[in-house]
User: Which sequence fits this backbone?
């Protein structure tokens, strides 16, 4: 069945416009649709400020305390108008320098240091000096190498002077001196003396130096009269050296009890020097 143009039914009955005009009118007449977002919007991000100024120079590491320079200004000379110069002096962190390490030092340095200490203590004990009035200052840096050397030297000298049984003479002399020093030290301590045990041994050993000299002279010159004179002088010298230290260590009322055994030991050593032929 055929239809002509006049048989076309419009979309809207109240309008006589064509289909195309009707569609256009519907498009323009419809309200704008709002498209909902699929997810909520994210909050705004904080902006990072970007500085256009150049980066600061890196800080220098602090200097170690041991190399901190001290600038000591020098006074300019009278005739010169130049600015004062500065002298850089490096000091240690503690102000006095690090303590010397004696474990890694050469053997010869150790020997020289010990010999210097022996000579210093010998001067303080045997020879006149101002520190003899203060025993604490006189033998503060005490040692046992010096006394050991003087005891061995005296024993060897007496054994060389003996014509027979040299080894027995050395053994007797060494035992008398070593045991005597220990007994005398214990005697001072039992009397209430204020002295260190090894310091007392060191003192009594250093006081043997005059008797060592006397034994050496008597070995070189075999004369009874000379021996008596030399032993008397050296015995008085040894007693004079030991007197201020031993007397200051005990109570004044017990001074004789502390000094008498010391003199007795030195007198016995003197008789050994005279008797050995």
Assistant:
């Amino acid at each position: 069945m055929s239809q002509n143009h006049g048989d076309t039914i419009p979309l809207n009955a109240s309008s006589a416009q064509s289909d195309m005009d009707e569609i256009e009118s519907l498009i323009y007449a419809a309200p704008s649709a709002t498209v909902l977002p699929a997810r909520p919007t994210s909050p705004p991000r904080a902006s990072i400020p970007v500085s256009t100024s150049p980066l600061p120079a890196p800080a220098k590491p602090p200097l170690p305390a041991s190399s901190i320079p001290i600038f000591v200004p020098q006074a300019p000379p009278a005739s010169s108008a130049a600015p004062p110069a500065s002298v850089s002096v490096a000091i240690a962190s503690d102000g006095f320098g690090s303590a010397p390490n004696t474990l890694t030092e050469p053997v010869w340095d150790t020997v020289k240091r010990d010999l210097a200490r022996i000579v210093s203590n010998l001067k303080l004990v045997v020879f006149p000096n101002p520190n003899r009035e203060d025993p604490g200052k006189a033998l503060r840096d005490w040692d046992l190498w010096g006394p050991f050397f003087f005891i061995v030297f005296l024993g060897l000298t007496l054994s060389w002077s003996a014509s027979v049984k040299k080894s027995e003479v050395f053994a007797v002399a060494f035992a008398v001196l070593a045991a005597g020093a220990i007994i005398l030290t214990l005697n001072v301590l039992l009397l209430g003396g204020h002295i260190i045990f090894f310091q007392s041994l060191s003192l009594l050993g250093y006081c043997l130096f005059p008797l060592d000299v006397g034994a050496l002279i008597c070995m070189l010159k075999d004369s009874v009269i000379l021996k008596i004179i030399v032993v008397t002088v050296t015995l008085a010298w040894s007693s004079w050296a030991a007197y201020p230290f031993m007397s200051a260590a005990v109570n004044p009322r017990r001074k004789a009890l502390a000094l008498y055994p010391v003199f007795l030991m030195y007198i016995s050593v003197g008789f050994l020097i005279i008797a050995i032929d």
The longest strand covers residues 69-73. The radius of gyration is 53 Å.
